[in-house]
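Example record for the data management plan.
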Amino acid sequence: EYIRTQGESPYPDDVVRTLQVALATTPGSRYASIGKNFFLPDDPIPLGGGCEAWKGFHSALRAVQDGLAVNVDISYNGFYANLSVTDMAKDILQIREFDRSGLSDRDRARIQREIKLLRIEVTHRKSKRGDTRFKIEGVSPLPADQEMLEIEYQGQKKKLSVAEYFAERYQPLRYPQLPCLSVQALGPRMPGRPQQRTQLPMEVCKIVEGQRRTKQLTGPMTAAMIKACNQKPDRRLQLVLNSRRTAAYEEDEILKAFGIEVDQEPVELQARFLKAPTLHFNPESRENKSVPPNGDWNMRDKKVYFAGQTIETWGVLVCLDDRTFPEREAQDFVGQMVRSFGEKGLDCRNTMPPIVRHPYPQSLRDVLREVKEKAESDGGECQLILVIKPVDNDMYRNIKIVGDTQLGIPTQCVLVDKLRRGGPQYCSNVGLKINAKLGGKNWVLSADDFKVADGKTFMILGCGITKSPIGPRSEHAVASLVGSLDPQLGKHAGTYSIQSAREGYVVSMHAMMLNLLKAFEKEWGPKKLPEVLLLYRDGTSEGNFAKVLQHEVTDIRNACAEMDRNYAPKITVVVTSKHHHVRFFPQDQSAMDRNGNCKAGVVVDATICSPRDWDFYLVSHAGIQGTSRPTRYTVLMDEIGFGPDELQQLTFNQCYTYARCPRSVSYTPVAYYASLFGQRTLHYLAGEGGMESDYASSVGSGGDRGRRERPPAALPEARPVHPRLSDVMFYA
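Corresponding structural encoding:
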């Protein structure tokens, strides 16, 4: 009835959930399941660090315009490998064999961070009582040949080390120099007997199969996972069809009982192509406009539309020793950057900035301040610090903390490996990021390609909630809001707040919206405010749509009224989502790019869309690797009065304005910027390790702290962004 009436009848939530349970019961009993994903241990892909990727399939029931549909896709997730703990320790430390002297405190701590709370089974004995499985509580500071036990032997108590005990009772240990594991039994506990910890040698313990890795993947693990997941469209389609056969719905007795049948072949869709917009560059360029055929373009013979600042005072920090990155190479790269600035229309007056070298900086604050002072020795305020560095996420985080919150100077990090491989194209892309950070516009849309509400003043808003990585600090999140300040979408203001990760909506929307409206008024003049607001709300689930309308939209209206009681702009809210398993596989050669993906501009707004909601799927980018994922857009409310074609084209055209690279992106840049701003703000949270202090939360925009949204000691507080950076896209 819900589908027949196109959503006019109430959504049958209980029915859909019941059918989803029926769909998932049989595969859930056969395979390792995580939500609607089911994983098999066959042919695991090594990720390093004692982990591996398991392949599986996604199976979810959805009510769509054409009836009920099952969304089937391939899926990957990280699991701990079924290894002995000693082999896992070697993998974590990236060593072939242990040193005879044992482990350092640092290595022991690294191992403990990875394996704590994992389930293990012992290999030195067998038992029918089920008492061979334990949970790791920690790693002992003492090696097995120093960890002492007290046992009763022939009526007398006897002290001996764990290594001696195993040599007498079982067999000598191969690694007596390694610390023991402190474990607790997982089997049934004897009544009245307290749970006791046991010390076990690493080498007699093996990781129980099928344990999901819940910690955030390391950089190398992420790279290996991406490589495993990146399947070209033809290969991915074959894997999806294989997954459909693995699911074997037609053999499922539970589905038969419910009368559910699932087609063997994927559904065929009718799609449309949207017209690519015209991009304009500096009029002095040899080629000053372009219509990119498939979402990417080359900056050869093109200059940026508007250069943000004349670069007069800047410096370079090299975080590598002279053997790894010689001085001559550093000078050559700076020369390449200066030439690239000139080719792209950036006015760089200082062609020989000071180069400061600190291979292993203990205090990045002192080092960056030194670069700043040397750059300013001839007068003027430092405008930019270019940092040449190795791959080091902690270093990157600390550079951004110091530059964004303490010095108020945009920083641009350059990885030495990419620098050497990239050549002029890499320098060009770095130059585009720098221009955006200095307030410039790299290209703009034709006026005909971007009209909102018949020429009324507007603000395009992007909003999202960025949660901290999986782990002990995951209870907090950053809500970020970014808004456009000019009709060409080249200048944006940003604001943020800290809130509980459990909240399904932005708690501090009122204060954040006030910040952006004040920034707009500052840019346009007193009492000049946008007549319409188009909000792209990123990443919220369907279950939270009502909260977005009830809380966030109400807060936006209240913020507008606080600016002026007669100010009531029209508001349109569109939710963007990429966290789904819908994929398109073009069958017509004319619709494919060179990798077999859909060309940029493919839109689907029927068949698999909601019977009730106004939604559509849009492929707005050229796939670089793997299979392109379309973005789903759902319109929650539309006071501006867009037509479906108009909103789809407007959204697609925006995807060509992303400032960081000469490509269209997979979803609206303003939502992308909100995500970047949220990720950057996670770096600012008080405390060396992130969200560790017990201060109240505040709303920040530039150097301005807003009203308190939480009682004291409820949430941590982020360092405010330096006032000098409040009006530029320093996070680009």
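Summary line stored alongside the record: The first helix runs from residue 13 to 30.
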